[in-house]
Write a structure and sequence with these properties.
The complex is a heterodimer of chains A (110) and B (113). Chain A has 110 residues and is mostly beta strands. Chain A has no helices and eleven strands. In chain A, strands 2, 4, 5, 9, 10 and 11 form a six-stranded mixed β-sheet that branches. With 113 residues, chain B is mostly beta strands. Helices cover 0% and strands 58% of the residues of chain B. Chain B is built from no helices and eleven strands. In chain B, strands 2, 4, 5, 6, 9, 10 and 11 form a seven-stranded mixed β-sheet that branches. In chain B, strands 1-3-8-7 form a four-stranded antiparallel β-sheet, with no helix packed on it. In chain B, a hairpin with a 3-residue loop joins strand 4 and strand 5. Chain B is globular, with a radius of gyration of 13 Å. Classes of the chains: A mainly beta (110), B mainly beta (113). Chains A and B meet through strand 5 and strand 10 of A and strand 5 and strand 10 of B.
Amino acid sequence: ELKVEQNPLFLSMQEGKNYTIYCNYSTTSDRLYWYRQDPGKSLESLFVLLSNGAVKQEGRLMASLDTKARLSTLHITAAVHDLSATYFCAVIQGAQKLVFGQGTRLTINP
Amino acid sequence: DAGITQSPRHKVTETGTPVTLRCHQTENHRYMYWYRQDPGHGLRLIHYSYGVKDTDKGEVSDGYSVSRSKTEDFLLTLESATSSQTSVYFCAIRAGGSGQPQHFGDGTRLSIL
């Protein structure tokens, strides 16, 4: 059974700082997704990582995938308040089933 | 905007009553999904569909059934609602090939008293 674990689950940081969210998964998969969710809202797709060594960047967010270590990271550079949200990673099981991590609630303080 | 509409957006009902949630899409995507979101669990897949009348179970399918009689509509039914099914329910579609992300609707907040 595929398990996906994120850490930390809660993160409070100051604007301008850098930090990394980690996503570990328990069985082989070659597709990993990152989503963002604002309070009371839907999920927004951020990144799709499809191969070992894949790196994607959008603004202050950068995601990477190491399939051998079964690890993905979401790195935040020079955080700004607008990045406050809950971030989820999700891993494909089989062809269709997405298994989500618990989410990381990120709060960025001015 | 992935063209997904969930209805109702909010519902309060009593234990033992049947409940049906609807997911409607406008772009004829083949794959549709139902998830529930609970604190500390992220999202968990309930059922999914890969075409009209083609469905399969997800991680937490007990107590739920689904139907897809038209490409655009995917219905989730709680035959006899229980308090443990109080949750936020999200519908999703996948546009394009297997590497594409799923896109989510706005969710239905369901409370069972």
